[in-house]
TrEMBL record:
Organism, as annotated: Mycolicibacterium conceptionense
Transmembrane segments: 12-33, 146-171, 183-202, 214-240, 252-272, 284-302
MF (Gene Ontology): chloride channel activity
Record flagged with keyword Transmembrane: yes
Protein name: Chloride channel protein EriC
Keyword annotations: Chloride, Chloride channel, Ion channel, Ion transport, Membrane, Transmembrane, Transmembrane helix, Transport
GO cellular component, one term: chloride channel complex
Length: 332
């Protein structure tokens, strides 16, 4: 075994462990912001929103949005925050400070009720920690690309307790390859990350299906609904692409813009407490058949619009869970 192979193998272990710590830290911070925003101690975000007063529901996301907007305004005036994909693919140096601060602001805005996903922050923090933890080793640019992509996937896998999903994200979304070296590294790092984050995530599935058993009827129904889900997902992607600004907003207007988006979410949550957050509340209630057709129709319309407003205002967050909501609601 050569020194390069030994260092690459050790780097895989280090990246997996650090990605788990990233997933653990971002999850704890997200829960702290949620509990602070809606003043609850136990239970899910939906429980907290349901138990809070109408004033707190409306004002909480607005204040969180304003604080996050102020943070992004200051951050973008002094630092560049490139995307993970461009940083990894182009073999650029990881801007550790700006990427970590950007991740913290994502947690703040999502935890306070923004209609965005939470998976962006752990991916960024995992890449920052993975880069710092392996920076002293003599890795080739290609090996570094594999490791940082695996860190991003492992961070995703850690927060949702989906090791295979995290590995597939690294392999297909970040690296676009099925090379055994990349596949092996992705599987190991994601498995380690999920194990490390287990004390916080408890290795629970993000969603619990009411009846996981398959039948011919269910399989046929899924096949029939597949084109509809594809159409809804495509429409969602196009809406988000149109909403995304051509250039990252750096004006002070980002502060009132994100605050206004938060206020819209807050006002809507007075009638639909499932609205705040990344959409898990909607999926949970929908799978439990606890949502009326009228509520499903209203949320189906509101959630993509609110997500687009946040994106247009300059907020940053994940799109994985937000993309699941329209498809789930359209099947009701």
């Amino acid at each position: 075994m050569t020194r390069r192979e030994l260092e690459f193998g050790c780097s895989i272990i280090v990246v997996g462990l650090l990605a788990g710590l990233a997933g653990m830290a971002t999850t704890v911070l997200l829960h702290f912001v949620e509990h602070l925003t809606y003043a609850f101690t136990f239970g899910s975000l939906l429980d907290g929103v349901t138990g809070s007063s109408p004033v707190r529901r409306a004002v909480g996301p607005m204040i969180g949005g304003a604080l996050a907007g102020f943070g992004w305004w200051v951050l973008r005036r002094h630092y560049e925050v490139p995307t993970l994909a461009s940083t990894i693919t182009n073999h650029r140096a990881v801007p550790r400070v700006s990427m970590t601060l950007d991740a913290a602001l994502q947690i703040l805005v999502v935890g306070s009720g923004a209609s965005l996903g939470r998976e962006g922050a752990p991916r960024q923090v995992a890449v920052v920690l993975g880069d710092a933890g392996t920076s002293r080793w003599a890795l080739t640019p290609h090996d570094r690309e594999i490791l940082l992509a695996c860190a991003a996937g492992a961070g995703l896998g850690a927060v949702y307790s989906v090791p295979v999903g995290g590995a597939l994200f690294a392999i297909r979304i970040m690296l676009h390859t099925w090379h055994p070296r990349a596949v092996g590294a992705a599987l190991i790092t994601s498995a380690l990350a999920v194990a490390v984050a287990a004390p916080v995530t408890h290795v629970r599935a993000p969603l619990v299906w009411p009846d996981p058993s398959l039948s011919y009827f269910l399989t046929g129904f899924a096949v029939i609904l597949a084109p509809l889900a594809f159409a809804v997902g495509t429409a969602f992607n196009r809406i988000m692409a149109r909403a995304k600004p051509a250039a990252t907003p750096t004006s002070w207007l980002i502060i009132p813009g994100i605050a206004a988006a938060g206020l819209l979410v807050g006002i809507g949550s007075v009638w639909w407490p499932e609205l705040p957050g990344n959409g898990k509340s909607i999926l949970t209630v929908s799978l439990a058949s606890g949502m009326t057709l009228g509520s499903a129709a209203a949320i189906l319309l509101l959630k993509p619009v609110l997500t687009a407003i946040f994106v247009r205002a300059g907020a940053v967050g994940g799109m994985l869970t937000p993309a699941l909501r329209p498809g789930q609601l359209s099947d009701r």
